[in-house]
Design goal:
The chain has 116 residues and is mainly alpha-helical. The longest helix has 17 residues, at 84-100. α1 packs across α5 (84-100) and α3 (40-47) crosses α5 (84-100). It is globular and about 45 Å long. It has one domain (5-100). A two-stranded antiparallel ribbon has the order 1-2. It contains five helices and two strands. The chain has helices at 5-15, 18-26, 40-47, 59-66, 84-100; strands at residues 73-74, 77-78.
């Protein structure tokens, strides 16, 4: 079963060790999370099956690509908000916001398909 955006963030934050939380606390801005893309981001993409075309979180991207859409292309980079790379970074930033606000609830301002 696939998880929603919020379920992924909550599961990750709840599974963090004190050291994990401390690491995120040391990142003073969301942008400092960008280097995590190739390591922690890859873990999120693989573990939560963001590359699966049936995953509701990324289905819109797969459908757009299958239709030949290039609406979200920027200088050769696919910036579609439901692209697995973009989505994993949004998850990491939501984790950062959760830890910096000292809460496990947060608002997701992006429109994501979380019906399943």
């Amino acid at each position: 079963m696939y998880k929603t955006f919020n379920e992924i963030v909550l599961e990750q934050v709840r599974g963090f060790t004190v050291d994990d939380k401390h690491y995120f606390q040391l990142l003073d801005t969301e942008d400092k999370c960008i280097p995590l893309h190739h390591t922690y981001g890859r873990h999120i993409r693989n573990y939560y099956k963001l590359w699966d075309k049936n995953n509701p979180l990324t289905k819109a991207w797969f459908d757009a690509r299958a239709a030949g859409s290039e609406e979200h292309m920027d200088r050769g980079v696919d910036c579609h908000p439901e692209h697995p790379d973009q989505l994993s970074m949004a998850i990491i930033k939501a984790i950062w916001r959760s830890i910096h606000s000292n809460t496990t609830t947060f608002n997701v301002t992006r429109k994501l398909n979380e019906e399943n």
